[in-house]
Amino acid sequence: MTHSIIFDTDPGVDDAQAIAIALAHPEIELLGMTTTFGNVTIEVATSNALLLAELAEQRIPVAQGAAEPMVKKKNPPPGHIHGDNGLGNMALPETTTHAVEQSAPQFIVEQVNARPGEVVLVAVGPLGNLAAALQLDPTLPQKVKQVVVMGGSIREGGNVTPVAEANMFNDPHAAAKVLQADWPLTLVGLDATHRCVLDPASMKKIVAGQEKLGRVLEESYAFYRRFYQKAQGIDGCCPHDSCALVWLLRPDLFTTRQGYLSVITEGLAEGQTLLSPLEREFVDARWSIGTPKQVCLDANGPAVIDWIVEALTPTE
Ligand code: RIB
Ligand code: CA
């Protein structure tokens, strides 16, 4: 089955790994990429998305999106994690292509309305573009096929605060709108992605399987790996954003639970994501807004890594 996707991204080292999968996998039709601030500034995110498509020698529309959060003050991009250029501070070739005219929200609304019931939105950065698209066309939830969001954390704790995951923390107001809209949405958060470690041996196979993209994946991984060694004492990196695509193609590798999602938007716990399980009753309706969503609470890490390696080492 082919999945026609719009990839909403803040590339970003792990975003680049996921973009390489989206560009290569025969069951994925990449309709376009929409960019957002997050790991990098919006300008760098757009330039990196254009460059990755160029290196794969594919003409993929890139629509530029959110430059900052909906409400809160923007945090400086985490150059110590992804590099100031979002790809491990490696020397990058100049891009030769440009973003399309439409903004990211306009692009999303146009593509979904052109193909109602067929488009999957895969969002792996802060959620401002999807929130703005909902604002632009409030009937969007009835016309998308599926939304997959890399973000959030239910039991795993946070990676930028003790409770908040980066994509949610970077724009909690947008996250609340997206996670509580009435569309079919699966959340692939740290409860799943932290079970997956892309180790150096697997990365070596991937680099060998990629042509021009291989050098970017290799050098950006090396930078990201140093961060993970220092910050988490693991030798490798969590392929957070690739996990969103793995769920789409191999949902059997994940353990999920249905329930209502909410996002804390203010105060010490801003960006925290809460799951109110479908079968539980709580004191009042505040914890069950919108329609029930599917939340990944675990993953078969080794199998996810094997799938990623296979997706990025094309058979002869
Ligand atoms: O918390 C991990 C997420 O935040 C990933 O999408 C990573 O690329 C950053 O955007
Ligand atoms: Ca990302």
Major sheet size, sense and barrel closure: 9 strands, mixed
Strand content: 15-25%
Bound molecules: alpha-D-ribofuranose, calcium ion
Helical residue percent?
25-40%
Question: How many angstroms does the end-to-end distance come to?
Answer: 22 Å
Q: Looking at the structure, what is the overall shape?
A: globular
Q: Judging by the overall fold, what is the CATH architecture? A: Alpha-Beta Complex
Q: If you average the pLDDT, what whole number results?
A: 97
Radius of gyration: 18 Å
Number of helices: 12
CATH names the topology as Inosine-uridine Nucleoside N-ribohydrolase, Chain A
**Helix-strand category:** alpha/beta
How do the SSEs run, as a string of H and E? EHEHEHHEHEHHEHHHHEEEH
The tally of strands reads 9
Tell me the strand order in the biggest sheet.
Answer: 3-2-1-4-5-6-9-7-8
Low-confidence stretches: none
CATH class: Alpha Beta
CATH homologous superfamily heading: Ribonucleoside hydrolase-like
What is the domain total for the residues? Answer: 1
Written account of the structure:
The protein is α/β, with parallel strands linked by helices and 316 residues long. Helices cover 38% and strands 17% of the residues. The protein has twelve helices and nine strands. A nine-stranded mixed β-sheet has the order 3-2-1-4-5-6-9-7-8, sandwiched between helices. Helix 1 (13-24) links the parallel strand 1 and strand 2 (28-35). Helix 1 (13-24) packs antiparallel against helix 10 and helix 9 packs antiparallel against helix 10. It is globular and about 55 Å long. The structure holds alpha-D-ribofuranose (RIB) and calcium ion. Alpha-D-ribofuranose (RIB) binds at residues 10, 12, 14-15, 38-39, 124-125, 150, 159, 165-167, 240-241.
